[in-house]
Amino acid sequence: xxxxxxxxxxxxxxxxxxxxxxxxxxxxxxxxxxxxxxxxxxxxxxxxxxxxxxxxxxxxxxxxxxxxxxxxxxxxxxxxxxxxxxxxxxxxxxxxxxxxxxxxxxxxxxxxxxxxxxxxxxxxxxxxxxxxxxxxxxxxxxxxxxxxxxxxxxxxxxxxxxxxxxxxxxxxxxxxxxxxxxxxxxxxxxxxxxxxxxxxxxxxxxxxxxxxxxxxxxxxxxxxxxxxxxxxxxxxxxxxxxxxxxxxxxxxxxxxxxxxxxxxxxxxxxxxxxxxxxxxxxxxxxxxxxxxxxxxxxxxxxxxxxxxxxxxxxxxxxxxxxxxxxxxxxxxxxxxxxxxxxxxxxxxxxxxxxxxxxxxxxxxxxxxxxxxxxxxxxxxxxxxxxxxxxxxxxxxxxxxxxxxxxxxxxx
Amino acid sequence: xxxxxxxxxxxxxxxxxxxxxxxxxxxxxxxxxxxxxxxxxxxxxxxxxxxxxxxxxxxxxxxxxxxxx
Lengths: 411, 69
Prior knowledge:
- With 411 residues, chain A is an alpha/beta fold.
- Chain A is 53% helix and 13% strand.
- Chain A has helices at residues 37-49, 67-78, 93-108, 130-140, 160-178, 198-203, 214-224, 245-265, 273-298, 306-330, 339-347, 349-381, 384-399, and strands at residues 26-32, 54-59, 83-87, 116-120, 125-126, 144-153, 193-197, 228-239.
- Chains A and B meet through helix 5, strand 8, helix 8, helix 9 and helix 10 of A and helix 1 and helix 2 of B.
């Protein structure tokens, strides 16, 4: 993948190919820890609506300390003889559990070789055509390594925070569509529901364990190996989003800092181009604003032609206006919307506050990234006093949600 | 969100409002190089927005048939 400016405006058109959907072997892997009724429903729906699918539920060492857990796993097992229940030897987090199932499929069952492997979160809700449409999109493009579903919020009516996330997810879906055919496709094939071409997934060696966002990481690796990715516009899935601010903050610090680590380790620019552009523009703007504040506080006053300032203001207003009209237009695709969602979107203020809260998350992740990069060297070379200081700083970061040591699931 | 180009940490970044603030500040306290720098950044971000919108429209038209089923 080389940088091609034409691709910024004109997305590459995927070459469609014929395939027989009836003969496509599909399996689904659902890693789970302390599953609830959502997982049972998900397994039953997968079996009911997809007659040939094989489902692997990976119990990531859930403690068997109550009857309810036993009942849930019993219901999952009894859903069909196409369901296989696996259990990891010790808690391996999401990527570890996925790899455990992949190993089981490819080493233990050589007679059965899936063409498509679905990875799902255990609280996802699907529709009758979700999997079928996802598989159809994946298999119709020979260069596609993965295709993800649309994302919607199941609990969006819970409070204003969940409503804001519902509107945000609508934007995520739009961004993924805009990125189709743009340098390999969308930035992240999300962990909620993605279909992988089996030999592409094994070609990249499965999921990176102990990574903060393994879905972004594997998407970048797929693109590095030449595979394209996309989102299926007609494959709908719903998930539960954080209902409390503290949970949302922790989720977003993980996404934000995890994203920086993926960029830092990327071997080429193209697979993470959208992030590079976004961070580049934002970081430059922050630096310029800092310079301006310093100039305001300590400068002797200067002169700039007012026309320059008016152009900046005019272009900024134009950008906000274009954004606003587009967001209103996007509402037509928000199936679950109600009057409150319209009020939130039209009034601008709640989303403005929300977006600035997320900006703080990004700024914090920059600081934490700089801290971890610097202290990586310091801790190896220095004495106990400096190590103590680093530990205290690390604890402070942990207090505000930044850590490089947790997995996808925190319970 | 004030963003068109996706990314894991970018969805909350409201560059437009930062540029608005910068524009108003530059009217009172000015530095020609900072002004030019801000203008370049604003134009760059505007171009990203425009390109993303173009791609969205093209891809939407290419995939629209899938929504008809």
